[in-house]
Design brief:
2 copies of one chain form a homodimer.
Chain A: H1 12-20, H2 25-33, H3 39-45, H4 51-64, E1 67-71, E2 77-81, H5 83-86, H6 89-102, H7 105-108, H8 114-124, E3 135-140, E4 150-156, E5 159-163, E6 173-177, H9 179-186, H10 192-197, E7 201-205, H11 207-211, H12 213-216
Chain A binds a DNA duplex (20 and 20 nucleotides) through α4.
Amino acid sequence: MTDRGGYQQFCPLSMAAEIICTRWTPLILRELLCGSTRFSDLRKGVPRMSPTLLSKRLKELEEAGVIETRPRPDGNLDYLLTEMGEDLRPMIMTLGNWGHRWIESTVSLRNLDPSLLMWDMRRWLNTGHLPSRRCTIQFLYPEIPGGGRTFWLVVHEGEVDLCSIDPGFEVDLMVTADLRSMTAVWMGMTSLRAEIAAGRITVDGDAGMARAMGDWLGLSRFAPEPRRVA
Amino acid sequence: MTDRGGYQQFCPLSMAAEIICTRWTPLILRELLCGSTRFSDLRKGVPRMSPTLLSKRLKELEEAGVIETRPRPDGNLDYLLTEMGEDLRPMIMTLGNWGHRWIESTVSLRNLDPSLLMWDMRRWLNTGHLPSRRCTIQFLYPEIPGGGRTFWLVVHEGEVDLCSIDPGFEVDLMVTADLRSMTAVWMGMTSLRAEIAAGRITVDGDAGMARAMGDWLGLSRFAPEPRRVA
DNA sequence: CTGCATCCTCTTCGATACTG
DNA sequence: CAGTATCGAAGAGGATGCAG
């Protein structure tokens, strides 16, 4: 940050923007604030970012004091927010809530991505509203061609695993969904009930789990924000 | 934004970051939120940005619905925040306040710029604490070599003009300051009183105006935020 | 598998000059 | 004063390779 790259303004907004408002950085912060600490988990949240650039950004954030690294027992690194980094949560939420208020759903829903949706779903699943035994929920997006249309969420002792290849367990609940509808539900743009009624999402299997889907399916953290546009 | 440039995530944070977190954009928004509406005024707030890029960014913000343009009587354009754009104020303030809390003053104060400081000062001068007649305050930063070390703030009927060449009026008050000290005062990192006591800022001329300097000198909008670092 | 480094191509940015 | 055109330099993405 000698000359290029820096705005050369003493204003704190300028200094903050130099750290935070570079390409991909807000999304990396979102992942960290959502609890990801491993390089590979961070990558799942920003799948279109090259690992080289992710590595570079993490170093920059560490240099700025936003994160710190700690060796894990397995020999790899954990990337952890410092107090300075954790203090970015209100800013990230404010920006995301603004987006949710003002970005048209027709625009947001151009960027459908089942892996990303499932990864976020895994993160916020309310395991307390599922049976205490191990249970397996299969999601199928029939419109998606080839492999990659099927996902399994395996819940066991409060832990949730996302699989994109069949884990082999008996499936307790099978959700078949239009990807756009499932994403819209997740974003709070429509209701699960409405999409099921319209036949765009169907649920088969354990009746109790099916009935409680509105409870165990946590929505996006931005879904509660009231929208200002269609 | 077909493929490159976009994050391709439906998450509202991602959509918002595509619009807001591009190079220079937060600073342009700061200027707009502070009330600048003309191209030339916006440039004064981001003097190191090329006019080409400023023009491009303004078009992008208009396309996104954050600003709109309106023809002025003089034939040029006014750039005005829409409701969507005005709604970014909390986010920009949150980010700036974060910067003020966490960025070390030694880092911020590497980016001294007297023009920028004076431009911001002009913006927030409390004219109500100055005599109602026209008055002229001269600022001198002796350390700065060559021209560009002297500025005049001319206050007349509630309007403030910033001049970098002598407007020719009689000077009512003369402020001689170390640029770093004046900037630190402006940012709320130290007090005017302390810097005057230390001899790093001196004030000569109209005794009433000198005494009231703490009142008419509005500080940065971020100055009130309590700092977490030195 | 994790966490990069390297090489290459394409896009974006900055500096300067220029036009209505 | 309010922007636009041009061009070289830096940055970002993709593919590949590699050490632990």
